[in-house]
Amino acid sequence: MKKLLFAFSLLLSTAIYCCTPDAPLSPSEKAKLHLLSELDTLQHIAENELLRLATTGSEDSIRLAFHRTRQAYKQVELFTEYYAPTVSKELNGAPLPEIEVEETTVFEPSGLQVIEEHLYPSFEEQNREVLIQEAKKFLSLTGRARTILEGTEFTDAHILNACRQEVFRIIVLGISGFDTPLTATGVKEAATALQSVQEVLAFFGNNEQLQTLLQKAIAYTAQSASFDHFDRMAFITQFANPITAEITGWQKQLNVAPLTMPLAIHAEAATLFDKNSLRADYFAGSAEAMATPEKIALGKALFFNPVVSGNSSTCGACHKPELAFTDGLPKSAAIEKGKFVQRNAPTLYYAGLQHAQFYDMRASTLESQTVDVIRNKDEMHASVEDAAHRLNAEADFILAFKQAFPGMEAEIQPKHVMMALASYVRSLTPFNSRFDRHMRDKEQHLTAQETKGFNLFMGKAKCGTCHFMPVFNGTAAPAFNNTEAEVLGIVENPRAAHPMLDPDLGRFTHNKMEELRFAFKTPTLRNVAKTAPYMHNGSYQTLEEVMDFYNKGGAQGMGLQLENQTLPPDPLNLTEEETKSIISFLHTLTDEV
């Protein structure tokens, strides 16, 4: 059946693409035909196996059809994620409601992960009708995906980039189990996704080294004994990184110009872990806000200067460089002596590589965060308008602003103050830890215990399903188009005999949606060894306390009532030795600046 469908697609597409019967197809056109064939196979399996057996089959038969559907989806994932991300999220997104804060709307999840929840850990007969509806919805979504695929004009540069991004996706989401939380089949599914990459790249010609790397990577993942014991570090350093580097180099040899469209990952980055692989400008609010050396230098001068507040307070008072731009306090000191602000001061390292600021995500850009902090009565109790007025009285600053903003009119405007400070914060992305050097160099920079900790972090402990590489925050590669929040159930005092939920309502404070009650942004774990105490309330004094909290399954795992908790409540069952290994790994994320 698959061969027949492919032959039909080939004939149809040849008629569409070719002006004459002998006109050759480009690699990207061949890739489109191939993906159309694979999508036909997915639709066939979803309809004739998953839906049919969901209607009449036994638990075992439905599960088998489900896994065949997932494998078929992985054959087209590089297309859906790259060209149809909205549909892709519905096909295989997280089984959590999609929240549109601005519209105060909640969309119920759908797709393979929702179906997975109906089949594991057990299938309940009373849920069969719901399962049937989810299977029908999935089938309908594949139809939408096919419509998009048929109407999309492929180019060689886009296809090569889609293949490279699929490998990045496998590194960050596939082998972490992000989209297979209950079945733990993510590693084996990575073999299928890699096979799809291999098949598509073959249309560009014979690159023996690349094909050999892919074949070895496929064998390595397919033969994995178990999800928990898979050596993710070896897979990334020995296979995944060399594969993406080879794709990047081969693109140059093929004389395929790199994409000029603004993506989060540089089009010419060899690996996800290159020092300059991420573009901070991608996260800037506008072209005018993009950083330059002059803006960064000016922003740094303002960051440590009380001229911004008009009093003795500075940004650097709560964000000290020696403490990874935190202050070492549970909650930062307020202007009024003896008082404190509502929350812990987060690190500013890598703050520019996300789409939301503050723990409650109330600011969408660093510029708007700047305004909020400066005017906050407990922090600076000033305004950017007054700051601009004071700066206009100082000749040196006027000159510096004109150099940073050549199009600036006679006076410094409030927006220039905001953008200068934001540019400095965006520059705080050193990517200079031992972990980074280990991922980039052929030399070993991590110990055996630290490597074990990384594998646990990305596997059994499930840390990597919320703290996404390479930034280890809530913004997932390779698209980097959304910053996530989680409901964990942080307690006021983890050392109390009977811990109670912290009363801080998080995102619910500004957006009255029940799903956001106690929701907080997922921060970066980079430099976490320097940023104690932890969590938004600073109540966790050590990394050991944080690990104990997660190991128990958050608030629900501790027996507290929290219906909207997004952290799985099941215990991780980490041993003391495993916890120590994870903490050892976290120490390797400290930048040496």
From TrEMBL:
<dbReference type="InterPro" id="IPR036909">
    <property type="entry name" value="Cyt_c-like_dom_sf"/>
</dbReference>
<keyword id="KW-0575">Peroxidase</keyword>
<feature type="signal peptide">
    <location>
        <begin position="1"/>
        <end position="18"/>
    </location>
</feature>
<dbReference type="InterPro" id="IPR004852">
    <property type="entry name" value="Di-haem_cyt_c_peroxidsae"/>
</dbReference>
<feature type="domain" description="Cytochrome c">
    <location>
        <begin position="294"/>
        <end position="425"/>
    </location>
</feature>
<keyword id="KW-0479">Metal-binding</keyword>
<dbReference type="InterPro" id="IPR009056">
    <property type="entry name" value="Cyt_c-like_dom"/>
</dbReference>
<keyword id="KW-0408">Iron</keyword>
<dbReference type="GO" id="GO:0004601">
    <property type="term" value="F:peroxidase activity"/>
</dbReference>
<dbReference type="Pfam" id="PF03150">
    <property type="entry name" value="CCP_MauG"/>
</dbReference>
<dbReference type="InterPro" id="IPR038352">
    <property type="entry name" value="Imelysin_sf"/>
</dbReference>
<protein>
    <submittedName>
        <fullName>Cytochrome-c peroxidase</fullName>
    </submittedName>
</protein>
<keyword id="KW-0560">Oxidoreductase</keyword>
<dbReference type="InterPro" id="IPR051395">
    <property type="entry name" value="Cytochrome_c_Peroxidase/MauG"/>
</dbReference>
<keyword id="KW-0349">Heme</keyword>
<feature type="domain" description="Cytochrome c">
    <location>
        <begin position="448"/>
        <end position="590"/>
    </location>
</feature>
<keyword id="KW-0732">Signal</keyword>
